[in-house]
Amino acid sequence: xxxxxxxxxALVTGASSGIGxxxxxxxxxxxAIVAITARRRERLEKLAAEIRDAGGSxxxxxxxxxxxxxxxxxxxxxxxxxxxxxxxVNNAGLMLNGMIFNAPTDEWDRMVDIxxxxxxxxxxxxxxxxxxxxxxxxRQVADIVNISSVAGRRARLGAGVYNAxxxxxxxxxxxxxxxxxxxxxxxxxxxxxxxRTELDSHMKPEIRAITMxxxxxxxxxxxxxxxxxxVFIVTRSWRSAINEVLVxxxxxxx
Length: 254
Ligand SMILES: NC(=O)c1ccc[n+]([C@@H]2O[C@H](COP(=O)([O-])OP(=O)(O)OC[C@H]3O[C@@H](n4cnc5c(N)ncnc54)[C@H](OP(=O)(O)O)[C@@H]3O)[C@@H](O)[C@H]2O)c1
Known about the structure:
Layout: E1 9-13, H1 18-29, E2 33-38, H2 41-53, E3 57-62, H3 68-82, E4 87-90, H4 105-136, E5 142-147, H5 160-180, E6 185-192, H6 205-212, H7 223-234, E7 244-247
Parallel strand pairs: 1-2, 1-4, 2-3, 4-5, 5-6, 6-7
Helix pairs in contact: 1-7, 3-4, 4-5
The structure holds NADP nicotinamide-adenine-dinucleotide phosphate (NAP).
């Protein structure tokens, strides 16, 4: 049977771990050729080898996409080497929680840089190629899927700047959707609750403990749960655009 994404090319940012890694795996299993990017080359190489062993195709592009020149390079290399771009998953992100008063503002910069600016740069560079794919693809559609968070829908004490970046992703997604949807470029946002990944490992132990406390005793989501949603979004018929998916662990009430 023909796979849904055969003949398409997908670029996944933040593919060296967690949600991005699993999304790349699942898109490849649906037949997409995947370009995978993040800073950790070895992790990307390992994933690419695994995808190839499973019969798929993957290209590794190590980069720090907080730098606009590198974000542009990632998109250009994808299109140069793989010939087109049908799907962009803007997933790379960082969560460094803490109170706003007396906060180390370098942490704010790092979150704004990757959660927001890198997503803007990558999208900007990819747009001409995605619009072209939407026009000439037999599927008659192309996709951007942005990974925001429940934190992009609900602010929480101690997460102000992470919240600001993720609310920003939701707003940007909706404005861009209005701009390009008539051209068959779908723009979607996925807003996960807690997922078991490396995301919380970057915080100082005391901040991490405060952040994770409300999740004690809760079975959180796995990366597969979010990857499945991304695949569902991008495999709909061109007529159907899933604009937004808010998904929490069943036991997460907040
Ligand atoms: N886990 C959750 O509970 C949860 C909930 C809601 C939303 N999200 C969102 O889901 C997305 C994926 O996060 P995750 O949970 O899978 O966390 P993760 O395992 O920590 O993955 C984050 C990814 O982002 C990449 N990244 C970080 N900084 C980068 C940079 N400067 N340049 C390029 N890549 C960079 C990392 O790769 P390198 O370090 O190799 O560069 C890594 O691949 C994020 O946007 C996060 O905000 C997560």
